[in-house]
């Protein structure tokens, strides 16, 4: 289990995160949502071991994150930051292949090919990374991160993704989220920051709702992903509805002038 | 061409990379033979081969005693020094570019060379006490001081221009300008206090070319440069990962701090030794890694050894021109590398604005 206990983080005495407790279980897809500046990315960096927290602790399978070497940590968790640039003209294949850097034995190329085909970037393999479009770059980076934990292992592992699908078109977003749901069955806990609420409602198992550096609500989607909680979180009218009374969820938010228009009609 | 050379399947790619290295190696041997043959005193290729083979216990081709003397005492140490320093500067350039994650970085440009030069001058002027202390210092004092200067400036420039693993290139270049100016002023200040012997020493050294090479200097260069070369070349997978950023490299299991320190130390050792033995030779460290990447992709598995070989080829060729253009006089080699390198650097800046890789 990946645990964050009593996490605090301050920048020059200004609290960015105040007392956050979270648990990420292997086999579950957990999503962090919240308004801009809520501390999502900071929490993400603390959990992935980039920055130490001012107070509290981060535990991977029961051991503190700073007790691992970078090599050991790379075997139990893979991280995709929000933005990554590549400073030299590497090809897409070379970027994905970097994910195998820490593999204890010679890595099977078939698995790289498999990941690239699943993410629909196989045809880009010889292209220079820096000449790809935003969505293509994102899939190449995701491929690099996925290959790092692709091989099945006996111990639980974690995948941390900071807005991994923000530049992708809608069909690719579904493709990637399906893939993540498949991946979690390999004893992997997936944690992602996402902004598209209807995708969150339909794919996540658990949601962590953050506001002003604190967790406002967390739990199963069925329990906490409600119109009421979302409206509180974002300070904006949001509606969650069941689609055709099936398991699918529709999340709406309308422009304010439409809502005002409707209100005036009612009056 | 680039597309086929970057053929992604590693087996194919590695075969192509090995072929490129083999080709560069053969080219280097060609340049070596040519520089051994050409010069103020012309020696036919047949005699060059003759001298070389007789040293190996073979007897291919004939040669005369004066030819053998010139080759063994003057030309071979000079050529080998050119290979070591040219290759070292090429590789140090590639390492620093990888460390700073920027293709515009060069030891001369960011002040590493001038830092090394300043410390070298300090040793030339004030080091008499040290050399009296131990004869060892008269051998390695100069390279050691130049190494310390280079290392200090590298760390300084890195800390000025980098923030949480990202380098701001404009700050980096400006820091380089400032440090170059500062080091120039400090060198002038130190020379103000120098006596005549030290001044003469400095003048010879600052003319900076491979002319003063001999076997004992070559020995020092080998001892100092070869281990640093080996340390850098071993780090090619880590340098590839660092191209994505220090944070990403850490996520992928790279011990970023260790890699950084090895690169700082090794490249400062190479540049410092090169500066102390041959003065500041500019632009080799900038142009060479670039040409390799341009032709054959960014994989450091090729860029590092390729930069060594191409740097050696480039400096040996420059030295060949330096010795032969105004025969029997010699041009300083720094003039030739700057004549080639400065326009290329301008070309890079213009292009860097357009396509940011």
Automatic annotation (TrEMBL), chain A:
NCBIfam families: PRK13548.1. It holds the Pfam family ABC_tran. CDD domains: ABC_Iron-Siderophores_B12_Hemin. InterPro entries: AAA+_ATPase, ABC_transporter-like_ATP-bd, ABC_transporter-like_CS, P-loop_NTPase. It comes from Belliella aquatica. The gene is hmuV. Transmembrane segments: none annotated. Keywords: ATP-binding, Nucleotide-binding, Translocase, Transport. Part of the ABC transporter complex HmuTUV involved in hemin import. Responsible for energy coupling to the transport system. One of its GO terms (molecular function) is ATP binding. This is Hemin import ATP-binding protein HmuV. Residues 2-237 form the ABC transporter domain.
TrEMBL record, chain B:
It is found in: Cell membrane. It comes from the Bacteria. The chain crosses the membrane at residues 20-43, 76-96, 108-130, 136-158, 170-194, 214-237, 258-282, 302-322, 329-350. InterPro entries: ABC_BtuC-like, ABC_transptr_permease_BtuC. Its main location: membrane. Keywords: Cell membrane, Membrane, Transmembrane, Transmembrane helix, Transport. It is a multi-pass membrane protein. Pfam families: FecCD. Belongs to the binding-protein-dependent transport system permease family. FecCD subfamily. This is Hemin ABC transporter permease.
């Amino acid at each position: 289990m990946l645990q964050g206990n009593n996490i605090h983080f301050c920048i020059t005495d200004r609290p960015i995160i105040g007392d956050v407790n979270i648990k990420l279980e292997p086999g579950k897809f957990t999503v962090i949502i919240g308004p801009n500046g809520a501390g999502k990315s900071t929490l993400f960096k603390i959990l992935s071991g980039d920055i130490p927290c001012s107070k509290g602790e981060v535990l991977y399978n029961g051991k503190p994150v700073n007790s691992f070497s970078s090599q050991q940590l790379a075997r139990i968790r893979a991280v995709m930051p929000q933005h990554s640039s590549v400073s030299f003209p590497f090809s897409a294949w070379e970027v994905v292949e970097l994910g195998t850097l820490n593999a204890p034995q010679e890595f099977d190329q078939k698995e790289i090919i498999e990941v690239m085909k699943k993410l629909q970037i196989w045809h880009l393999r010889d292209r220079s990374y820096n000449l790809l479009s935003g969505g293509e770059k994102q899939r190449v980076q995701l491929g690099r991160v996925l290959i790092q934990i692709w091989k099945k292992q006996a111990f639980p592992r974690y995948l941390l993704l900071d807005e991994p699908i923000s530049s992708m078109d809608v069909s690719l977003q579904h493709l990637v989220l399906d893939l993540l749901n498949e991946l979690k069955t390999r004893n992997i806990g997936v944690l992602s920051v996402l902004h598209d609420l209807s995708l969150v409602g339909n794919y996540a198992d658990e949601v962590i709702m953050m506001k002003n550096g604190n967790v406002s609500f967390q739990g199963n989607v069925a329990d906490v992903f409600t119109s009421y909680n979302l409206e509180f979180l974002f300070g904006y009218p949001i509606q969650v509805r069941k689609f055709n009374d099936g398991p699918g969820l529709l999340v709406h938010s309308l422009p304010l002038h439409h809502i005002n228009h409707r209100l005036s009609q009612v009056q | 061409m680039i597309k086929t050379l970057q053929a992604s399947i590693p087996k194919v790619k590695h075969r192509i990379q090995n072929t490129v290295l083999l080709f560069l190696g053969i080219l280097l041997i060609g340049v070596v033979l040519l520089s051994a043959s050409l010069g103020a005193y012309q020696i036919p290729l047949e005699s060059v081969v003759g001298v070389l083979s007789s040293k190996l216990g073979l007897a291919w081709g004939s040669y005369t005693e004066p030819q053998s003397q010139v080759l063994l005492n003057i030309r071979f140490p000079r050529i080998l020094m050119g290979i070591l320093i040219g290759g070292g500067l090429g590789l140090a350039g590639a390492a620093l570019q990888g460390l700073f994650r920027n293709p515009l970085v060069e030891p001369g440009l960011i002040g590493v060379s001038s830092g090394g030069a300043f410390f070298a001058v300090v040793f030339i002027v004030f080091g008499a006490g040290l050399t009296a202390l131990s004869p060892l210092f008269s051998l390695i004092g100069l390279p050691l001081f130049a190494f310390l200067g280079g290392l200090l400036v590298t760390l300084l420039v890195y800390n000025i221009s980098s923030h949480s693993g990202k380098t701001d290139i404009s700050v980096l270049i400006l820091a380089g300008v400032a440090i170059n100016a500062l080091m120039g002023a400090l060198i002038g200040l130190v020379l103000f206090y120098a006596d005549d012997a030290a001044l003469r020493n400095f003048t010879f050294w600052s003319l900076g070319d491979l002319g003063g090479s001999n076997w004992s200097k070559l020995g020092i260069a080998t001892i100092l440069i070869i281990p640093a070369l080996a340390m850098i070349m071993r780090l090619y997978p880590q340098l590839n990962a660092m191209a994505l950023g220090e944070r990403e490299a850490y996520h992928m299991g790279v011990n970023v701090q260790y890699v950084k320190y090895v690169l700082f130390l090794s490249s400062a050792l190479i540049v410092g030794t090169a500066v102390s033995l041959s003065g500041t030779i500019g632009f080799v460290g900038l142009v060479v890694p670039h040409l390799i990447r341009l032709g054959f992709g960014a994989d450091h598995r090729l860029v590092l050894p390729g930069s060594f070989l191409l740097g050696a080829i480039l400096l040996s060729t420059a030295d060949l021109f330096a010795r032969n253009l105004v025969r029997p006089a010699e041009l300083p080699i720094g003039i030739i590398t700057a004549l080639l390198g400065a326009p290329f650097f301008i070309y890079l800046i213009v292009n860097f604005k357009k396509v940011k890789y």
